[in-house]
Write a structure and sequence with these properties.
alpha/beta; Adenylosuccinate Synthetase, subunit A, domain 2; Adenylosuccinate Synthetase, Chain A, domain 3; 3 domains
Length: about 425
C-alpha cells in the first residue's frame, strides 16, 4: 500500500491530529518524523481528550504501531508524561511504541539557552515556545547532540555531557543564569532513560517490512509548512523540516513510497507568535474567530492571531507538499459571519497593480504587503450537525468549492467540530 502523509498547510494548529486519528484505524504504523514537544495536537476519541506533543496518533487503535523517527527531537520528561497519560486511559503501549535511538534529546540547557536568545533579541523576538527546539537542532547539526544511543553506555554519556556543560555553563553564567551541575543532570537523564528504555528501538526495519508486505503507513507532520526552516517566514519559523518530503529523511521512507498527501488547513488563518500574517484581523471579526475557534495554543496557551483564509499561501504550500487532497477544518467557526473574504494575492506599494506571490517575498516584504480579497456571502446558520456535503448551507458549499478552485486541490474532508463524527467526507 502507498504511504500517506498528513501535513499542515498554514502556520500549524490546523487540526492535523484529528485527521491522523481519523485515518489511523486503517494504519499498521503511524509515525512522527519531525519537530519536538513544541508542536501540540489535541485528539478527541472514545478514550477521551488527549493534548499531546510527542506521542504519535493511532495509539487508540490496538493493532497500530506508533513510532517516533530520528527526525524528531525528544524531551524525555515530556514523553514519559505522555506515555503515562495514554496508559492511564487503559491503552497498552509497551509493545506498540517505538522510539528511534537516533533521536536527539532536548536537554535542560537547551531550554535555558532558548530563553536567553529570545530575551537578547528584545523587540525582535521571534515568539518561540522556549522548549529548546532551536538550540537542540543547532547542537544536532554542529555535532554536539546527545542521542538515546549515547545513554546506552554510561561512560559515553558522561563524557559527552561533561563536554556540553563545559560549553554551555559559561554562556549561562554570562547571562546571570545558574549553571547546571553534572551529577544532578546525569542522574536525572539516566533515570528518564531507564523509564523509556523499553520503547527505544529503531523502527526503520519494521517500516521496511511493512512496505514490502503491503502494510499501511501513516506519517504525521508536526507544525505547518509556513514554519518550515527553508520555505517558511524565516526567521519566524521552526528549526526542522515540516514538509511531507521531510518524512524521507526524518523517518526513513523513500520518496516514491509517499503517494497520498493530505494537506490540512483551517477555513480561516491563524498564527502563534511573531512574524508576518497578511490577512490578520485586528477588529471584532478577528475576536469572533478567536473565541468561536477557541484559538489558544495547545503547548503554550497563547492566543492565536486570526484572519481570513489566505488562498495564495495554501496554494503555495499545497504545491510544495504535493498535496493530493485537502482537509478543511473548523468550517463551523465561520457560521455566524454575514460575509467572508478569501485572499488571492498581495499588492506592494512599489509593485503597481500586479499580484505578488508568497514565494517571491521574504518575511519583511510580506509584512508590508496588502492582501487582495474576493468576497463571499456567509451562511449565518449552524453547520455542526451536517454529516454529508449536501447538508451544508448552499453558501457554505460555495465557500468550500471556491477554496478548491483557488488552491487547485480537491477538498476531501470538511470538519465541522472537534470529534471524529463531525467530519464530512466530500
Amino acid at each position: 500500500m502507498p504511504v500517506t502523509a498528513v501535513v499542515g498547510l498554514q502556520w500549524g494548529d490546523e487540526a492535523k491530529g484529528k485527521f491522523v486519528d481519523l485515518l489511523s484505524p486503517n494504519a499498521d504504523l503511524v509515525a512522527r518524523f519531525g519537530g519536538g514537544d513544541n508542536a501540540g495536537h489535541t485528539v478527541v476519541n472514545e478514550f477521551g481528550t488527549f493534548k499531546l506533543r510527542l506521542m504519535p496518533n493511532g495509539f487508540s487503535n490496538a493493532k497500530t504501531i506508533c513510532a517516533i523517527g530520528p527526525g524528531v527531537v525528544v524531551n524525555p520528561q515530556t514523553l514519559i508524561e505522555e506515555i503515562e497519560t495514554v496508559q492511564n486511559s487503559g491503552i497498552e503501549l509497551e509493545s506498540r511504541l517505538w522510539v528511534s535511538p537516533r533521536c536527539n534529546l532536548v536537554m535542560p540547557y537547551h531550554r535555558l539557552l532558548e530563553g536567553i536568545y529570545e530575551e537578547a533579541r528584545g523587540a525582535a523576538k521571534t515568539g518561540t515556545t522556549r522548549r529548546g527546539i532551536g538550540p537542540v537542532f543547532a547542537d544536532k547539526v554542529s555535532y554536539n547532540g546527545i542521542r538515546f544511543f549515547d545513554l546506552k553506555h554510561e561512560d559515553q554519556f558522561a563524557r559527552k555531557l561533561k563536554l556540553q556543560l563545559a560549553l554551555k555553563n559559561p554562556i549561562l553564567r554570562a547571562f546571570g543564569v545558574e549553571p547546571l551541575e553534572f551529577d544532578a543532570l546525569f542522574s536525572e537523564v539516566s533515570s528518564q532513560y531507564s523509564r523509556l528504555k523499553p520503547y527505544i528501538r529503531e523502527p526503520f526495519g519494521l517500516a521496511q517490512q511493512m512496505l514490502a508486505e503491503g502494510g499501511e503507513i501513516l506519517l504525521e507532520g508536526a507544525q505547518g509548512a509556513l514554519l518550515d526552516n527553508n520555505w517558511g517566514t524565516y526567521p519566524f519559523c521552526t528549526a526542522s523540516i515540516t514538509l511531507a518530503g521531510g518524512a524521507c529523511a526524518g523517518f526513513g521512507i523513500a520518496p516514491h513510497a509517499i503517494r497520498r498527501v493530505v494537506g490540512v488547513t483551517k477555513a480561516y488563518t491563524t498564527r502563534v507568535g511573531a512574524g508576518p500574517m497578511p490577512t490578520e484581523l485586528f477588529d471584532e471579526t478577528g475576536e469572533k474567530l478567536q473565541q468561536a475557534g477557541q484559538e489558544f495554543g495547545t503547548v503554550t496557551g497563547r492566543a492565536r492571531r486570526c484572519g481570513w483564509f489566505d488562498a495564495e499561501l495554501v496554494r503555495f504550500t499545497s504545491q510544495l507538499n504535493g498535496a493530493t487532497e485537502l482537509a478543511l477544518t473548523k468550517l463551523d467557526v465561520l457560521d455566524e459571519l454575514p460575509a467572508l473574504k478569501i485572499c488571492i494575492g498581495y499588492r506592494r506599494a512599489e509593485g503597481g497593480d500586479r499580484l505578488w506571490h508568497y514565494w517571491e517575498l521574504d518575511a519583511e516584504e510580506l509584512a508590508l504587503c496588502e492582501p487582495v480579497y474576493l468576497e463571499l456571502e456567509g451562511w449565518r446558520q449552524s453547520t455542526t450537525a451536517a454529516r454529508n456535503f449536501a447538508q451544508l448551507p448552499a453558501q457554505a458549499q460555495a465557500y468550500v468549492r471556491k477554496v478548491e478552485e483557488l488552491v487547485g486541490v480537491p477538498v476531501k474532508f470538511v470538519s465541522v467540530g472537534p470529534g471524529r463524527e463531525a467530519t464530512i467526507v466530500v
